[in-house]
Amino acid sequence: MGKLMKNLWRVLKRPPVHIGLGVIVLFSFIGGIVFWGGFNTALEVTNTEEFCVSCHEMGDNVYQELQTTVHWENRTGVRATCPDCHVPHNWTDKIARKMQASKEVWGAIFGTIDTREKFLDKRLELAQHEWERFSANKSLECRNCHDYDSMDWDAMSDEAARFMKRAAEKNQSCLDCHKGIAHELPKQMNFKNPMLARLEQQAQGVGLDEGETYYTVKPVTLYVDEALTERAGVLESASEVTILEAQGDKFKLAIDEWRKAKGFGRVLYEDFGQNITSAVLEKETAQNEALFTSGEEKIDDLTGLPWVKVEAQFWTDTKAFLSSRDELWNYASETYGASCSICHTEPAPAHFDTNTWPAMFAGMVGFTNMDAQTQDLVLKYLQKHSSDYAGEH
Known about the structure:
With 393 residues, the chain is of the alpha+beta class. It has helices spanning 2-13, 21-45, 49-52, 56-59, 62-66, 82-86, 91-101, 103-109, 116-136, 158-170, 195-204, 283-287, 326-340, 357-365, 372-384; strands at 213-216, 220-223, 231-235, 240-247, 250-260, 267-271, 274-281, 292-299, 306-316, 321-322. The chain has four domains: 2-45; 50-188, no CATH class; 195-322, no CATH class; 326-392, Cytochrome Bc1 Complex, Chain D, domain 2 (Orthogonal Bundle). 40% of the residues lie in helices and 17% in strands.
């Protein structure tokens, strides 16, 4: 055998005399096909659900949880498997993901999470790695099935459409809001506070007097007309309104806010120069100047942008108002402390100014399980208790 190999090597390293160049090219081409086919076959084997759950770390933990969710069984019969959600479909990103995942082999060899107890202890760390990856690639895997351009906004509930439209405009990662969809959240994040539901129930019993000021306990859909046929936008949580009329289960509201005089002016803000969102209007509503009464105009020295005070009147059929924001702030404060203290000591609200808080909060909230409504309320609480308002509290 040794002599045969030596003779073969001697032939191969000599310039071709008896073997034609065409034969060499042909065999090289065939060899390339065989190699490429074998490589892709092996790649696809590792890209199946059967392979993913072949180790008990996955099969006994997250795979069991998946089987209780809508991604496993639903009315349409469309199932999402492990690689559908954790491996990009295009080839380049898929190879990069496979290279990243190679460290899982190391973990399996050395038993990093080979028991249920070890898995639960490291669950938050593992989840955060995936959330960071989804955030970096804008949830590339989710977009294989859930694409903003294909969404039917009219088929959604008002609340869902409100948040999804905003996410589409920003091209947000799905995991910014949708955690715990296919797998359980880490136990460190299972903080649940029934106070908000209680406050919403409490708002149902509040008598609304014309001419009095109230605050929204949850987002409220606004309409231009009393018949509620033309949608105007959404009034955010903890926003101030004055009740003008109460016609059965319909209410006419007056809102007195600021907006930037450049652009469409779709966002109404609570204070001049402070990006505390009170309402987000439809584009058509924001451009209809007949709906607004303009007042004081000021230039923000920091940005150079002109702001104008406006008053507008809209209708709603949602009874979700409290006479004070105190209980809303109590809920937001408790949620902020409980959610953000998981990883570190949370900054005091007055540690940042009003316009710095949105960016700071966005960097932290991805590691919590706050729903979108709670996120908005907690952010407004932080802004209203920031260094700009610290003297008022």
